[in-house]
Amino acid sequence: QVQLVESGGGLAQAGDSLRLSCAASERTFSTYAVSWFRQAPEKEREFVAGITWNGGNTDYADSVKGRFTISRDNAQNTVFLQMYSLKPEDTAVYYCGAAHSIRSVVYRLKTNYNYWGQGTQVTVSS
Fold this sequence. Notes:
Elements: E1 4-7, E2 10-13, E3 18-24, E4 32-39, E5 46-51, E6 58-60, E7 68-73, E8 78-83, E9 92-100, E10 115-116, E11 120-125
Parallel strand pairs: 2-11
Antiparallel strand pairs: 1-3, 3-8, 4-5, 4-9, 5-6, 7-8, 9-10, 9-11
């Protein structure tokens, strides 16, 4: 059972930066694909960014491409989401999802992930 804990959310102003972390309890986390999703009130959970097990491939939603960067440190069992140039529309609860996979493909569907964290709130004011 993989336990994921997100952190780093908070209040920001438009144009600010935040870095989210997703820490895993599993010592074999290096064999898991991880993605960040977000869910705004009354909206579906949507894909934001994903990274393969070894960091070899990444993928981003069009809405965050060029502003967000996903990375991972397998020695620390942690995946990061660096967010720059935040916009009010980035306001949401951010979740990390993990799935055991050593494929070189980033999964964009939330149904591909069977482990989730509790989420961290990001609020961006204009």
